[in-house]
Design goal:
Length: 223
């Protein structure tokens, strides 16, 4: 089992190296919604398969990450206000401060991706499968691998490194966007760690992204 955990760590580090190199060398920007959704679906399927195999090798199941749905009270009384507060803070307070400090940055325009309201269902699927499922499954898996190998110090290290990598993955939004994304990723990590339920983080992340999609259509949909 220990060997499987170390192998998982090697896989994580290799994935991080690939993700960072891809951004720093190419900084690709999405061309259309269909391309984004296809990429998200392939990534989600790949993550689910790899995580399942690696966790089984370590004597665990995906269910050990916490897939139980929150109660209606938890979702409405706690989840909704938290998601709204995080969205407002990140997109208004933090982004405004970063824009004042860093300027407009080098973000490539994504306005063209929100011109057609008929493509909104594709964005919804992207939010649920990509942000909600794939990214939070990846995050919970990474946090637990580091923690099982190195204890609390490993958990702190995983929080730090995963936040940086997640931020770099959004460099196409410019430096300010990358920092903002890193902060959001860190917040999602704490959502998971609060009850050790990946489903909590999945629901919050999906709702957060859906709010962002609605805001983007409100801003760019009239153009």
């Amino acid at each position: 089992m220990k060997r499987a955990l170390w192998f998982s760590l090697v896989v994580i580090l290799a994935w991080w190296a690939y993700a960072v190199a891809r951004q720093l060398l190419a900084t690709p920007s999405p061309r259309d919604v269909q391309q984004i959704l296809l990429h998200v679906c392939v990534k989600a399927a790949g993550f689910a398969l790899v995580v399942t195999v690696l966790m089984r090798a370590a004597g665990e199941r995906i269910g050990d990450l916490g897939v139980r749905l929150p109660t209606a009270r938890e979702a409405i009384v706690i989840g909704v206000p938290f998601t709204l507060a995080l969205f407002v803070f990140t997109n208004i307070v933090l982004n405004s401060a970063l824009a004042a400090i860093l300027g407009g940055g080098s973000s490539r325009s994504i306005a063209h991706l929100f011109r057609d309201p008929a493509q909104a269902p594709l964005w919804v699927l992207t939010a649920v499968i990509g942000g909600g499922f794939a990214e939070e499954l990846e995050r919970a898996f990474i946090l637990t691998r580091f923690e099982r190998l190195f204890g609390r110090a490993g958990l702190v290290l995983a929080l730090t490194l995963s936040t940086i990598v997640f931020g770099l993955g959004h460099l196409y939004q410019g430096p300010a966007g990358a920092i903002s994304a890193g902060f959001t990723g860190l917040a999602m990590a704490f959502v998971y760690l609060r009850r050790r339920r990946v489903m909590d983080a999945m629901l919050v992340h999906a709702a957060f992204d859906l709010l962002g999609i609605a805001a983007a259509y409100a801003l760019y949909g009239r153009g």
